[in-house]
Structure formats: C-alpha cells, structure tokens
Amino acid sequence: MWVALIGIVVAAFVLGTLLIWKGQGGGNGSVWDLMAVMVRYRNEDLQSFMKRHREALRHGAKTGDYVGGVCNYYTLMSQLITMAVGPFWHFVPAWTGLTYKQCHDRFHHTMAKFLGAKPHDHILEYGCGYGECGRQVAKISGCKVTGLTMSDEEIIGGNERIYQAGLQHQCTIKQGNYHDMPFAPETFDKVFGIYCLKYSSDLETAISECARVLKPGGHLVSYEIIVTDKYDEDNKLHKEYVDNICHSTCMPPLWSATAFRLAAKKAGLILKEETDLCTPADGSWYARFERTGVFGVLENPISIKLVKLAEALRILAPSFTEFYERHLRHPTVDFVKAGRLGVVTGSVAMIWEKPKLK
What we know:
By secondary structure, the chain is an alpha/beta fold. It folds into two domains: 2-90 and 286-341, no CATH class; 100-222 and 257-280 and 349-353, Vaccinia Virus protein VP39 (Rossmann fold). 52% of the residues lie in helices and 13% in strands. The chain contains 14 helices and seven strands. β2, α7 (152-164) and β3 form a beta-alpha-beta unit. The longest helix has 22 residues, at 320-341.
C-alpha cells in the first residue's frame, strides 16, 4: 500500500512540474492546476505563514480587527489564486454555452452596465486586488478607474498588469483602507467592489465611506459572498461551512444581505436593484469547482493522506499539510457544500444610488 501511495505522490508531482514548465499551471481551477500549485509552493516558508495566520485569527476574534490577517493571507495567496484560477478572483454564473473566460467577460459587461460607466467617468474599485475587473470596466467603457487596496503585493502586481494592458492613462492603484479612504468627499462618479466587504468587520463604516466619496446621482455596486435567509446559525452544519470559509481567508463572519441593505440605507443610499445573476437555467456560481473535478479531489480523504506522505518524504515543505487543509481544501469544499444548501451565495449584485442634491 505504501509503495503505491509513494508512486502516486511522485507521479502527481512530476505532472505538476511539467505543467509549470509548459506554462499550463493556471486559469482553469482544475486538478492539474492544483498539482501545479503544490509543486510551485513546495519550498515556501509555510511554517511562518501559518503561524502568522493563526495569530491573526486569534487577534481578529478578540478585537474585530482582521486587517493584519488579510494582508498576511494575500502576501502568499495573491499569486497562488492567480496561478490556480487565472486573473478572476470571484465567482460568476456558469452561463450555458459559454467558456469560463466568456462567463467573466459577460460579467464585466454586466458590471459596467450596473455602474452606468461612461467615458468621462472616474470610477473607484475598492478592495481591488490586482484590479482585473476595474481594468475590464475601463476597457469596455473608456472610463478612468482608481483601485484601492491595502496590500503591497497587489499594488506592485496591479500596476504591472495596468502597464501590460496599456491602460496607464486610464487606471491606477492606490494604497488605503476602505474604512477610511484617502479621498475627498464626492470624488468619484461611480463606486464598486467585488468580494471585498467580506473582510470588513464594520460594514456600516465601509459603506458610509463609499457613499462619502461618491458624487450625488452616482451608483454604488456591491457584488459579495453573503449568507442567505436560509442560513441558520444554530444549524451545526451551516455554521461549520461558514466558519471554515471565514477562517480560511482570515475574515470576520460573513455578512447577510439584510445587513448590506440596512448599512446602505443608513448611509443615505437608495436601493435601485438587487439581483441574483444565477438563474435556474444557468450553472451555479460554484460550478467551476464541480465541473473541473477539483472538488472531488479535495473532498476525498485520500488527498490529505497523500499530502501528509509527501510532507513526510520532504517532497513538500514543512506545514504544507496544514496549509493544504486550511487554504486549499477549505474554503473550496465549503463553498460548494454551502452553495448546494443555499445558505451561502456569491452571485448577488446590489445597486444603490446616492440621491442628487436638491
């Protein structure tokens, strides 16, 4: 049995190495991408990374401040996520008949439409990551986009991507916290964020800051991972899935749709539209994990045994098993299981308007 397991481990890492060598280790979220990620990160100092992660989680649970943990998470995970799933860090519906990239292209056009983006607009993308969506909105509409992130890694990588796309006259990235934005009131014509307010432990302040920097008559668009009305905190399984999602990425408990509505109303914003981009005829927002088979691999108990064996054989770095369990297996498996139960969703867009001055 052990000989067979060793053979599987060696074969997997040979395949992963070949994928990296051929430049095929990213963009599909497939089993092969998972192998390539494991090979690429086998020599990282994961012991220090995981130690910082645990400390940040304890600090966040005690104080409500998860900023340090989020920054630590993305020092390593920014490149890993891009390598594994390409430049798109958010889920979109798996629209029938469209490829993964085409689904994201459709989403970007939908986002530009929700914003009402026009060539003369100056738009803010808060919590922008590497700024992929902002660049796409700029390309589609001709507008200017400023991205805001706290991460040094993302500022460097984001600016590199801006120059590679030839968008340096339309796009820029600045450092800052969206709870206290470094912008004057009414700076931007439109404001949007994608999968970033899940890191906020103070949703009211974050949305009030968005409203502050938004010009009257402008739109704020939010597209987030949230818990639905079906979520029951007293349900052990529901809570386990949501806790795993939050702890894996070092963020506070996921917000509900109701919390977003109340925070926006308190900030003086008017709800114009709330829509789930997934319809019964389309694939789910988490479908890409199921369709590529990576969910099955991560869910299978033998996968963690193989990782443990590879770490024991020093094919993988010390603490890789803990890293695999916390940051690869979770939250992937939990997104799928919680999504199937309908207690978590990642495809709802909310569009608010700041009232015009009388």
